[in-house]
Amino acid sequence: MEETQEVIFTVEGQPIHAVTAGKPNRQIALLIHGWSSSWYAMSPLTGLLSQRFHCIAIDLPGYGQSPPLPERATIPGYVELLADLLEELSDGPVVLVGHSMGGMISLTMALRHPALVERMVLLNPTITGKLSTFINLAVSPITALERFGLTSLIVSLVERYFVGLTDRIMRPASFAERTGITERDYHRLRADARRPGQGRVRAECFRAMLENNLSGQIGQIETPSLVIWGAEDNTVPLRDAGVVADEWPLADLRIIPKSGHWPHFETPATTNRLVAAFLGLPLSSDELYTPVGDEELARIQEVAHFLAHSDIGRDMNLAQRTRLAAQFRQQTYPPYTNIVNEDETGNEMYIVQSGTVEVWQDPENPGTAPKQPRRVASIKPGQMTGELSMLDQGLRTADLITGPEGATVLALSRERLLALAEDDAELGAKLMWNLATSMSQRVRFILWQLERAHERAAAQPGVKTQRVKTQPVRYRPTPN
Q1: Which range of residues forms the domain containing residue 50?
Q2: What angle do CA 337, 339, 342 make, to 5 degrees?
Q3: Residue-level pLDDT at 166
Q4: What is the per-residue pLDDT across 108-120, written as a single tens digit (0 to 9) for each?
């Protein structure tokens, strides 16, 4: 298991503390925390992301273990500092993962430096900079006092003696009523919010968010982005999600029940599933920090490019094909090898990547052990088979046997297909449409063949013909 490492980066003389995970030669995923937080605010995602990316979870200057900036903290100031950091560390576009104020920083970077950002995952991002009424009434007066040295000291001393009171005030603002956050994580997050010596930067950032209202601008962003929001967020209110819905139709906006301002802590399973689907993570493993090998990543990219010319990959962009490619099991078979047998229960469909797969069936006794089997079809690269048996989990109606050169096939299970369709509605719709289109074309071709055979028989003099009366079949009219 690959562990995290603490590092200090220095950009233009400014130290930036960070925690890293994942192989250093991978694409960078920069994780940016929000107001009154530290790198730990992004820790639930580092294990998942480090399977594929080189994760860098930073402490913004003035927070965690990073010293404050010499000048007043602003959102554009943070953006330019992080852009300089990424220019030093990365040889290509990066993935940004931002929470709350970190989401606003990510959005501002995508607006100012679009070539630097390939994709974004935004968790409860502040868009307008206007926090909830509760925060403005209960917290902003204290934040204003913290801006000055003496009053900041007084606030710190008083708060220390009234921790229970402030927790009771702040918990409803941050977490859902039925939150799933652990006590350990809750106390760590609250400790970050109470960290001494950060009163000035908290006050500056409170003002900085208001000054950086992104209303009327986010519609310019073309970077593929997943926006996740807790339904019970009382810190960055759902009215900001309304701005996303109105002004940024390209964003994939998801609202999660039983979650407040911290969906990655409160509903980690749902959040991880959405993030994994969006970023095309190859594994849905529960094992954290399990790196995916370079060969596996190369295979996924190879399959993604192949799918562009397959039945199932029509009209999908590269990001969608990459997400889909990560769900396939790739298997190579030698010549004349059974992939599946007739009468087996179907749970997978297959796409031929190379070679051929032959369909063998007894046309007189479909769905039973063949007495006189014969080859009824040959599936070529890019074509699919077995999709109906996979969807309804019924018995297969033919044997699938590799051709004389063997075959490499891509197998997609029913569970993975349904999970992908649930997690990514746009990709799921295209996937199901392509499946339906392919099946329709195959059925039309078979009906055309039957019609032609009937016409030829009718043209022979003295031969009595009648149309074949087909019996209803349980699964489908096409072989596998």
Answers
A1: 5-279
A2: 110
A3: 46
A4: 999 999 999 999 9
